[in-house]
Amino acid sequence: MGNKVVVKGGTSKDLTADELVFLKKSSKLSEKEIKDLHEAFWNEFPAGRMDKKGFVKYYQEIKDEADTTGILCDHVFAVFDQNHDDTIDFREFLLAVAAGTPGDLDSHLDYVFEMCDVSGDGHLDAEELANFLSASLTIVGKTDQRDELDPKRLAADVFRTLGISEDKKLTKDQFVNGCKNSSNLRVLFGGGN
User: Fold this and answer.
1) Which family does it belong to (predicted)?
2) I need a labelling partner for 51 at 20 to 30 A (CA). Which of 19, 78, 160, 185 fits?
């Protein structure tokens, strides 16, 4: 298939060797998978930018079938739309696709933090965490109003477990290290026992 992709209008977009190395390392996808996604991306989005509707289409094909409401997809898109222009480029798209399946605990918890931090300020407040937990509970069908599954209460419990006041914000390091050191938080955020 090669690195060169011909798109509508006769122009070509190159996937450079440096970009390929970066994307392989960052995404843990094979060179062929990256090239196939690159070709599909540029053929579908010749302007080089994918809107949210396009992202939802691809995300649902590749990722979590349990996300029937699209809530998690909304969070993923918000995380990778770094400049908040409601579009993402190929690199952002590929990293969004790949980030959903990180291999190690640190990468997984880093991804969860990024999913929660929709403001993109590098900090997580109780409201952002509660919104993420609410979306996650909706996806897995746990939307009843039992007190132990109340997203605001769960968020407060997470902050308390990490020794952080609810009116403060968590840094990524506090979140990742705290979750690694708490079996309850690892289970809550899908990092295993």
Assistant:
1) Belongs to the recoverin family.
2) 19
In angstroms, the CA 35 to CA 39 distance is 6
Q: Provide the domain limits for residue 111.
A: 105-190
Tokens 């590098």 map to which residue?
122
The answer to whether residues 82 and 106 touch, using CB atoms and an 8 Å cutoff, is no
Rounded to whole angstroms, the Cα distance separating 13 from 2 reads 12
Per the structure, how many domains does the chain have? 2
- CA 81 to each of CA 88, 120, 139, 183: distance values in angstroms, whole numbers, following the listed order: 5, 10, 22, 32
- Secondary structure letter of residue 121 according to DSSP: S
Asked if residue 4 belongs to a domain, the reply is no
Residue 47 has pLDDT above 50, yes or no: yes
Whole-number pLDDT of residue 169: 94
Four-residue CA torsion sign, 148, 154, 157, 161: positive
Cα separation, 31 vs 21, whole angstroms:
9
